[in-house]
């Protein structure tokens, strides 16, 4: 289907429910409906700057959290919650909001970039340097997230602003897809598909063929129109993206050397070739002397998260 963004914009969203299939479905449905209602009612007729729109998005997510939190007081829905990745397209910009570990990717030209950052225990350990990218892929506690809609009264909502380019494709998905299909595979599937519907079907089929042990939800949209700036190959995604509001603070210290710079974080302008080369370069191994500290950090954080999980369950 084709939608005219017009002045009020378009909302794209993926929300994955938690706490059982029935309660989870209720939570995710509440999230999406509340988000749609608040954004449609509050969106300005013309873009009023990133600050005003960011406040509107935060208000919409906050109201969704309140509704799920109240609904979860029902004995049959106790503990229910949901993740949320939402994109509000307003004029030539896309505002990306994140709670939990669903994801938003940008396919620009032939380059795929993850635009959200998982709010998860594994991501916390990865950011600290306690584990490597390779270890994160098979970490046993990948399903533990730091926050979810309906699980707590106050949320730390991450919001980013992306300047769209003609032909940009935005892919939103639950972890049922991202845990089974790599970004490179997603890129190939989307680029080779003859239509958006075909791409979505192929993505879900691929995840299911590899086990499909979790629900896979995919939203794929392409930005078009004469008003959008034409994409230039030498322009990096970083040059068109800014973090308006960071998510939960997950900083813990580690002795592991920092990873090489990539296009997913603000850096000095680099050519596309330099960005791709940096992303392919493997991170250095940590010094053996630092490993005991990293493992200690991991054990401490696991204990903390176990306490949080126990508190939420009771």
Q: Which terms summarize this structure?
A:
single chain, 314 residues, alpha+beta, five-stranded antiparallel beta sheet, four-stranded antiparallel beta sheet, 9 helices, 37% helix, disordered C terminus
Explain the overall architecture:
The protein is α+β, with helices and mostly antiparallel strands. Helices cover 37% and strands 18% of the residues. The protein has a 5-stranded antiparallel β-sheet with strand order 1-4-5-8-13, with helices on one face. A 4-stranded antiparallel β-sheet has the order 7-6-10-11. A two-stranded antiparallel ribbon has the order 2-3. 37% of the residues are buried.
Quick summary:
The chain has helices at residues 21-42, 50-71, 121-128, 133-137, 175-178, 183-192, 196-209, 272-280, 291-313, and strands spanning 10-14, 17-18, 81-82, 84-90, 93-99, 103-108, 111-114, 158-163, 165-166, 169-173, 218-222, 229-230, 241-245.
- On the 0 to 100 scale, the average pLDDT is 80
Task: Identify the quaternary structure here.
Answer: single chain
Strand content: 15-25%
Helix content: 25-40%
| Low-pLDDT segments | 252-314
Largest sheet: 5 strands, antiparallel
- Reading the helices and strands in chain order gives EEHHEEEEEHHEEEHHHEEEHH
- Strand order of the main beta sheet, please? 1-4-5-8-13
The radius of gyration over CA amounts to 20 Å
Number of beta-strand segments: 13
End-to-end span in angstroms?
Answer: 44 Å
**Class by SSE composition:** alpha+beta
Q: How many separate helices?
A: 9
> What best-fitting shape do the alpha-carbon axes yield?
globular
């Amino acid at each position: 289907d084709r939608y005219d963004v017009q002045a009020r914009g378009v909302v794209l969203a993926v929300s994955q429910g938690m706490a059982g299939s029935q309660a989870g479905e209720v939570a995710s449905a509440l999230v999406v409906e509340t988000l749609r209602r608040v954004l449609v009612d509050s969106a300005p007729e013309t873009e009023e700057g990133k600050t005003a729109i960011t406040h509107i998005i935060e208000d919409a997510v906050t109201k969704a959290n309140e509704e799920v939190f109240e609904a979860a007081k029902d004995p049959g829905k106790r503990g229910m919650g949901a993740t949320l990745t939402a994109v509000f397209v307003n004029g030539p910009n896309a505002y990306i909001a994140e709670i939990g570990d669903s994801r938003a990717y940008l396919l620009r030209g032939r380059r795929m970039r993850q635009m959200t950052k998982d709010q998860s225990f594994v991501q916390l350990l990865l950011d600290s340097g306690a584990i490597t990218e390779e270890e994160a892929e098979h970490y046993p506690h990948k399903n533990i997230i730091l926050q979810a809609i309906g699980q707590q009264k106050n949320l730390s909502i991450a919001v980013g602003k992306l300047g769209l380019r003609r032909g940009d494709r935005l892919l939103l998905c639950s972890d049922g897809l991202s845990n089974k299909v790599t970004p490179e595979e997603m890129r190939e599937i989307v680029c080779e598909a003859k239509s958006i519907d075909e791409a979505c079907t192929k993505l879900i089929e691929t995840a299911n063929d590899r086990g499909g042990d979790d629900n896979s939800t995919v939203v794929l949209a392409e930005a078009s129109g004469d008003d959008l700036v034409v994409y230039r190959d030498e322009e990096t995604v970083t040059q068109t993206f800014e973090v308006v509001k960071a998510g939960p603070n997950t900083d813990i210290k580690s002795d592991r050397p920092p990873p090489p710079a990539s296009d997913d974080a603000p850096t000095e302008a680099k050519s596309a070739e330099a960005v791709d080369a940096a992303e392919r370069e493997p991170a250095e191994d940590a010094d053996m002397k630092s490993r005991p500290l990293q493992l200690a950090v991991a054990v401490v954080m696991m204990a903390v998260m176990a306490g949080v999980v126990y508190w939420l369950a009771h």
